[in-house]
Structures are given as structure tokens and as C-alpha cells.
Write a structure and sequence with these properties.
Largest sheet of chain B: 8 strands, mixed
Shape of chain A: globular
Strand order of the largest sheet of chain A: 3-2-1-4-5
Helix content of chain B: 25-40%
Oligomer: heterodimer
Structural class of chain A: alpha+beta
Strand content of chain A: 15-25%
Order of helices and strands of chain A: HHEEEEHHEHH
CATH class of chain A: Alpha Beta
Number of helices of chain A: 6
Structural class of chain B: alpha/beta
CATH class of chain B: Alpha Beta
CATH superfamily of chain A: SCP2 sterol-binding domain
Distance between the termini of chain B: 30 Å
Distance between the termini of chain A: 7 Å
Strand content of chain B: 15-25%
Strand order of the largest sheet of chain B: 1-2-4-3-5-6-7-8
Number of domains of chain B: 1
Helix content of chain A: 25-40%
Largest sheet of chain A: 5 strands, mixed
Number of strands of chain A: 5
Number of helices of chain B: 11
Number of domains of chain A: 1
Radius of gyration of chain A: 13 Å
CATH architecture of chain A: 2-Layer Sandwich
Largest interface: A-B, 20 and 23 residues
CATH topology of chain B: Rossmann fold
Chain lengths: ~120, ~290
């Protein structure tokens, strides 16, 4: 699923423009095990998180939550990353400052879950 | 002439607020019962563009939307460069009262969203007899964010190495309902991106701290003198339907309705959907025929 997500994200020039100066690694667990998302100046990729992975922050939640998030019109509380966090459907770990100041990029990336394949 | 020119007129008014002179911008349209519209934190009166442009409403209501000082086209007061902007309950109430008095509005209806939804509660408490009715959009007694500690520690909404406008817009995007028209969603966010440095953060002081109404004071709100209508979008997790329901429980006579599909910025994120909830309220207050909506 993450490969498809990365492909759709990389194919969006306006989303990648937001990340044109960004170098960031963060964790993402959508119920299939932890992955590391690498953002490298306008390109994004995903890989399984190895034992040595220490992403600055991570986002994790169960499959069911991401499935609802991925629907075209999710229920209240599942409709945005911050809504999922406030309703404890997902959890943030680590230093969330890089997330907060790059929030449009991260939420734009996750919005690609609503196109094409669903979780 | 083929130009499509709106009936909305923008003007400036000089107000004295807490002893300081302010140049305040407002837009208005229509005739009839004055309807003062209060925007959300970090935004401006453009959020009410669809209400100002609705002929059915402006036929019966004089719709007025002003930009709080420091917001939109309203200037900060002279000397602003030497202070940190902070909105307090007293300052907010004084601003609305100064605006209503300067324009000699006769018992206006006051409608506000988010911080404005809180402010209408404070206004109805302190100045009930001055208002024909209060309409609270996304009203709650308080608000908290699980990211509050990070916000306070990093001040990420206002620091030199972060674009505060984009940070502010991204912070509120999740409060918009997922079915909002794309153009209205991004118009709403654009207003946030245009906010002055530190202004959204200064408004949040009222929203999170100074305007906290968990002190029992709300029980004194007299809905016989100033009827209170509460409309809350179901997708708002900052001022959620449950939080507005608590207001309704504590204010006898308050009328509360959840707005399907809408989030924290109903009048701006999805105006047409919002108006299906607003118009029956305006009809009940007076001046509009229910059958016309």
C-alpha cells in the first residue's frame, strides 16, 4: 500500500513543491508494521523500519482507523490526521515540531490514501 | 455595464476601545434588523461573504461583518510594534459594543463563530438587553488541544523561522468538514494564511485561556431577554457538538442544532449547506418568512 501511496505523492508536483527544501524521516504505522517515510527535497519514499530506525516523530494507528480515514467522506473524527489524533484513533510519538511546521505536506501526503486503492 | 459587482460595501469606522483609538474595517449589505457577524480566530470578516451576498437574508437583515483590530483590513492600534497582541474577554466584548454603539445599531442580532461563538455567550451574559438575539456557531465553554504543550513550548504559530500564515492554516484545516467545496475550503484557509504575525496565536489566548467559561458564570445567561441559538458542525473536534450540547444544558431556553457535514467554519467552508440551518433561525428571530427559505 505504501508503494502506491508514494507513487501518487511523487506524481503530484504541487505536493512535492511543498517539500522541495525538506529533508525529513518520520515513522508511519498503518497497522501493517512500522515504516519509515523519507522525504528528500521533493521526493518521498517508504521502507520498512529496521531495528535501528529512529525517526524524529512517528504516526501510528490501527488498520480500521486508517480504513475509515481513507473513505471519500469519513466519519467525524476520522476525516483528518489532526482529528484522528485528537480522538485518539492515531497517536503521535517523538518530537512533533517537524510535523507541525510541515503539516500541509504530511496531510497532503496522507490525503493520497483517498485516491485509488483504499486501505 | 456587464461587470458583476456585489452589493457588499466596505467602509472604515473609528472606534475607541479600552481607551485606544482604532481604525476598524467593516462590510455591510442589506436593510432591516442589524446582524453583526464575528469571524473566527486569525481570520477576518470575509468568512461571511456568502451571508452578505444572500439577497433573501439582506432583504430583511442589515448584515455587518467587521474585522477585529489587527485582522483583515483593520489596523492594529498605534504602538503595536512594541507589544504582543493578546485578545482578552474584556477587549473582545468592548470591541463589539463599541462597534454597535458607533453605528447606532438598534438591538442587533449578534452571530459569531469559534472565538466569536464564545464571544456571543459573553455578550449575552454582560449585555443581554443590548441584543435582540445571539447566534453561536461552534460555541463551547472552553477548548483544549492535545498539542497545547507543543504549541506553547515551540510557539510555532509565530516565530521567525516558520511562515505563521501557513502554519496557522495547516493547524485549522482538519477542522473543516470533508465534504466542503474545494474552493470554499481553500478560500477559508487563504484568510488564515494572510493573518498578521502572532495574531492567530493572540486570539487563541482568548479561546484557550481567558475566555474559559467553566466557572459557572454561564448559568446567568438570560434567554428571555436575549434568545440564544446554537449551531455546531458535526466535524468540529475543537468545539464539538458534545461541547455545544454542554452549553445548551447549562443555559435554559437555548436552542441547539447539530449541522450535518459541516466543520468549524460553517459560513465560510460550505456556505450553502450552512444557510439551510441559518435561515430558519433568522426566520424565527424575525424578518424572514420561513416559507421563503
Amino acid at each position: 500500500m505504501l508503494d502506491g501511496l508514494m507513487a501518487r505523492a511523487n506524481a503530484d508536483p504541487m505536493l512535492m513543491r511543498r517539500a522541495r527544501f525538506l529533508e525529513l524521516e518520520f515513522g508511519l504505522d498503518m497497522g501493517d508494521g512500522p515504516a519509515v517515510i523519507q522525504v528528500n527535497k521533493g521526493h518521498v519514499s517508504a521502507s520498512a523500519a529496521g531495528p535501528a530506525a529512529r525517526p524524529v516523530f512517528s504516526i501510528a494507528g490501527p488498520k480500521e482507523a486508517w480504513a475509515e480515514f481513507s473513505r471519500p467522506l469519513p466519519k467525524p473524527g476520522f476525516h483528518h490526521l489532526m482529528a484522528m489524533n485528537e480522538n485518539r484513533h492515531t497517536r503521535f510519538e517523538g518530537d512533533v515540531y517537524p510535523l507541525l511546521v510541515n503539516l500541509f505536506f504530511v496531510t497532503g501526503l496522507l490525503s493520497k490514501l483517498r485516491q485509488g486503492e483504499a486501505a | 455595464m456587464s461587470a458583476k459587482i456585489e452589493a457588499v460595501i466596505g467602509r472604515y469606522v473609528s472606534l475607541s476601545i479600552e481607551g485606544r483609538d482604532h481604525r476598524v474595517y467593516f462590510e455591510e449589505a442589506g436593510e432591516g434588523i442589524p446582524l453583526i457577524c464575528l469571524h473566527t480566530a486569525g481570520a477576518d470578516g470575509r468568512q461571511y461573504r456568502a451571508i452578505l451576498n444572500d439577497a433573501e437574508i439582506t432583504k430583511h437583515f442589515r448584515v455587518l461583518a467587521f474585522d477585529l483590530p489587527w485582522h483583515g483590513k483593520s489596523s492594529p492600534p498605534a504602538g503595536w510594534q512594541d507589544e504582543v497582541y493578546t485578545l482578552t474577554t474584556d477587549k473582545y466584548v468592548a470591541t463589539v459594543m463599541a462597534f454597535a454603539e458607533a453605528l447606532e445599531l438598534d438591538r442587533p442580532v449578534v452571530m459569531g463563530c469559534s472565538i466569536g461563538g464564545r464571544a456571543v455567550l459573553h455578550l449575552a451574559l454582560r449585555h443581554a438587553s443590548s441584543f435582540r438575539a445571539a447566534i453561536g456557531l461552534q460555541s463551547a465553554l472552553f477548548s483544549e488541544s492535545s498539542l497545547g504543550p507543543e504549541m506553547a513550548e515551540t510557539e510555532y504559530l509565530h516565530r521567525p523561522d516558520v511562515h505563521g500564515g501557513e502554519a496557522s492554516a495547516s493547524a485549522v484545516e482538519g477542522l473543516i468538514g470533508p465534504g466542503a467545496p474545494v474552493a470554499d475550503r481553500w478560500e477559508t484557509l487563504w484568510h488564515y494564511m494572510q493573518g498578521g504575525p502572532g495574531v492567530f496565536a493572540g486570539d487563541l489566548y482568548y479561546y484557550f485561556v481567558d475566555g474559559d467559561m467553566r466557572n459557572g458564570v454561564i448559568a446567568g445567561l438570560d434567554t428571555d431577554t436575549c434568545p440564544l441559538y446554537l449551531l455546531t458542525g458535526e466535524y468540529d473536534f475543537s468545539a464539538s457538538p458534545e461541547m455545544t450540547a454542554e452549553v445548551a444544558r447549562q443555559v435554559p431556553g437555548a436552542k441547539f442544532q447539530i449541522m450535518s457535514g459541516l466543520g468549524h467554519f460553517p459560513m465560510s467552508e460550505n456556505p450553502e449547506q450552512f444557510k439551510t440551518y441559518l435561515k430558519p433561525v433568522l426566520a424565527e428571530i424575525g424578518g424572514m418568512q420561513k416559507a421563503a427559505s
